[in-house]
Amino acid sequence: MHSAIIPEKLFELGLKFKQNGAKGCLVSGGCLPDGSVPLDDFAPVLGRFTRELGLTIFVHTGIIKQETAFALKEAGVNAALIDVIGSAETVRKIYNFKVTIQDYANSLKVLQEAKLNIIPHVIVGLNDGKLDGEMQALQMILKIKPSALVIIAFMPIHGTAMAKTPPPKPTDISKVTALARQMFPETPLILGCMRPKGRSRGETDVLALKAGVDAIAFPSEEAVEYVKNKGYNIAFSSYCCAQMYVDAFKL
Predict the structure, then answer these.
(1) CA dihedral over 189, 191, 194, 195, signed as positive or negative
(2) Segment 132-182, tens digit of pLDDT
(3) Are 184 and 160 spatial neighbours (Cβ–Cβ below 8 Å)?
(4) What is the Cα 215 distance to its own chain's centre?
């Protein structure tokens, strides 16, 4: 991740990336106490990325208002990525945001009204490693037409307040993944890069494949071996897993 706290710095980074052969970039937060990523001042730069540099641009939006969504569309942003939380307790206790579950639903609505490609992310086990609100998040997403859907899972990170919190079990991740596949049978479904590491990762990946995912970010050796043994058509990509919303229809 590269820091760019003013628009001029962001453009410098984009130009540098392009000169070094980059095809695109992912713009993300930090975010503000209201759950939003402060994108408004940066939208014109994103427009320069797409029009002058020809870069593919994905944006993690956070909670987003209508004007910002339409500004991203005007800039030519290729896709809007958004974590969708379905538990008020998780928002309060884990995020400490001053937002409601309805704010997430409204964000999905305005992104769709702006006619952006929407790639919601559902986080399994964010509330202390246990399932809480994932079903509700999927229900909210069901009210729009996502271009793809990414399942991710809480992973403890050293140096954070939840460093010692147990991650969700592989079976819990697969439950949410299987439910997502059932609810979105025609939508590209991806197991994203944020998921627990260690010995359980191979089990998580194989269970996700059995649950019906179309792609896995940074797949484990067990996952690669599994699909080879099954004779699946395999393709590797060096791009963000959200690119699957395009690549799925090329396979």
Answers:
(1) positive
(2) 999 999 999 999 999 999 999 999 999 999 999 999 999 999 999 999 999
(3) no
(4) 13
